[in-house]
Amino acid sequence: MATLHVDGADLYYEEHGEGEPLVLLHGFGSSTRDWELQIPIFAERYRVIAIDFRGFGRSSRDRGPFSVERFAADTLAVLDHLGVSRFRLVGYSMGGATAFQIAVDVPHRVERLILVNTQPSFLANTLRKRFEVVLRKLVVRFMGMERMAGVIARRLFPREDQQALRELVMDRYSTNTPAVYLGVLSTLPKWSVQERIGTIEAPTLVIAAEHDYTPLSEKEAYVPLMPDARLDIFEDSRHGTPFDQQERFNETVMRFMDLEDAE
Fewer CB atoms inside 10 A, N or C side of the chain? Predict the structure, then answer.
């Protein structure tokens, strides 16, 4: 556990285990704690590196800009500091967008790529997506982060037996700084690398929940545009797949990583 000063921000990161580097990038509104159910498993075989994006977790909260491009540059700065030239990369949600950005910017550095409930474009190009952005902004501005945390928790884990997961999400999301959350919401709907994903060289696994925020059809449309990508659909899961199907998720990730060792 350490921090690295990069362009005005102190970036928190953790390292666990030994072996080939495996980088974990968290979702919007969370931190390295997204990976608490994965790190002990992954660290048995890999040198796991998990990073808090600026504005989140234990990284600086007030040092923007807060954008996918900035998060990608910060991630590469941490990896350069650690002497990591090539790495496996797992990105969840906004962390998946950041993983996309890294994979198109420096494709020669990514050995294997896993994208979880994410897209190569977050453009608010439909009425539903624009409504989602506006709704989140209104809730944060007029009701605060605690109310936003409650909304997200119920959407991710709606079943009666998922109360513990809802409480976990509320605990994490409610600590977000409203200015940072709104700052990200102002940049995410403008971000896209859709036209560049054909340049991604790494074998890629796209994990998509059956009931994710965005429809499966969008994942099914972009996966064939990548040279070496496959899609794995997790039934009866929503956006929080690493949490609500942790065992299958961990096994799927490790199996995909192990394919490289067998090749």
Answer: C
